[in-house]
């Protein structure tokens, strides 16, 4: 996209919608789309971040996530609202189809919904892996498979795989249609898979399709799963909060397009969003479709025969896979019994259950999403502390292997699910980061803005008053809560804010939550706080590429953390990096030594001071643009 194009768009836009905050949206939007700033790959895919050296959830900045795809769709929806041009929204969704939804799913037809997947328990520490695959543990029936097949006439899942190596840095050449034998990237990859204690610093990245070209004798499979033999196969993992965010973005695009009489222009994309939401129901079920509620004992807790296995909350992930070019054809699907409040999306549940534009074709989808909406609202109430913040989440599978939790957790369960202050991952604890709070509260506030639901208002009123009173102001500059600590169990859980910082992404998400809440509840203090946050972002944190702040990364000492490769295991990456029991994070990523920022890491590892970075994460930069735009749209200022 060239400069002339940007100038033309900007002029048209100001004429159509001229508020101060929508102009700020466009300024930030144009920075994101300025090709000199490096947000997008040559194929138009948004990178996780402009900067390549970044290790957090992805382990490299030029990877991308389903999160980034969903933020892109949302950004372009707001662009449509402000300019009347929804074509970029449609294009952003097309990228999801072209890159994030796997095309290699050839064995799916062999799937047997009466035997969705073989049980494999999570282990406490990555050093204990591989974990035994155990067919003696009963699993349940998958009630979604047949109705999705009847609705869409296909065995292929319409869900985003969560992680892509856009620049093919690892070199797997594992493109959307191919199995380690494509040409270049983007390459579908996966990380983690070794229990709650496996941080990004320990993870061993692997291609989503494994025909044993790289890794060891069995590719990468035997790092994770202990089995008697191994077969070539593909396997994908969805991050349901991202798929839900894409649905939520499409909901707004549809609403705004209706307002100006151009719904036709987005209707095809809206039908795809509805379909994505239909498959997203896999997140509402227990991992092995076992009975939900007091599911204690892997062997004693029975499999569900129909929907006894639904908890109706948006869980951490779901996954599917099948054999690749093998003599015997087989396929599997797994859902998830662990739900973090931070992943809930009442607006997406509302759209999929109540908005006729979004009615999914699956026979019981409306019913499922209506129950999910109700259950999500109840979850916020259950987890809300006296202070106002939301505590972690709930699980149907204690320790990821249906163990018995501490006895106090049996007292006040959530529909038989156990409270977990740090669901799914512990390094760092999954509910330490303040950002989860506004991420989820924002969706609740959007739902409240659309429906006026008094239950949502009650929850939000308490949350908003906690947040507003805990943002610190130094003149016109803010300090947001950064890290949170938790004690007690619901209904008596408590939060303490242990640190503050000037993270621009959480400031932006908080500002948008407050904007939606203030617009509906007529709350002047919430509106004023939103405006002050947005003004501070705009006036104090500008960079040439967006809006950001400096971060010091003491955690980057962990470039030498162990990868926990089992004794006797040897393999290699496409570039020749060895994988063996002494491997560390940097050993299996030697290409990082060619990164322009590597010198900072090297000096830190040699005893220098902790390195600092000014990152431009796609989600953050899009989030800020969206917050400006929404404030302008809501208040016409
Ligand atoms: C800007 O556009 C949005 C979406 O079409 C509309 O709701 C809002 O009222 C407009 N604002 C102004 C200032 O025209
Ligand atoms: C992987 O793709 C690259 C292009 O990026 C190509 O040069 C290389 O030969 C491919 N590797 C294999 C093993 O086919």
Automatic annotation (TrEMBL):
Gene Ontology BP terms: cellulose catabolic process
Keywords of this entry: Carbohydrate metabolism, Cellulose degradation, Glycosidase, Hydrolase, Polysaccharide degradation, Signal
GO molecular function: cellulase activity
InterPro entries linked to this entry: 6-hairpin_glycosidase_sf (IPR008928), 6hp_glycosidase-like_sf (IPR012341), Endo-1-4-beta-glucanase_dom2 (IPR023309), Endoglucanase_F_dom3 (IPR027390), Glyco_hydro_48F (IPR000556)
Tagged with keyword Signal: yes
Domain of life: Eukaryota
Signal peptide as annotated in the record: 1-15
Pfam families, per the entry: Glyco_hydro_48
Name by which UniProt lists this protein: Glycoside hydrolase family protein 48
Organism: Rhynchophorus ferrugineus
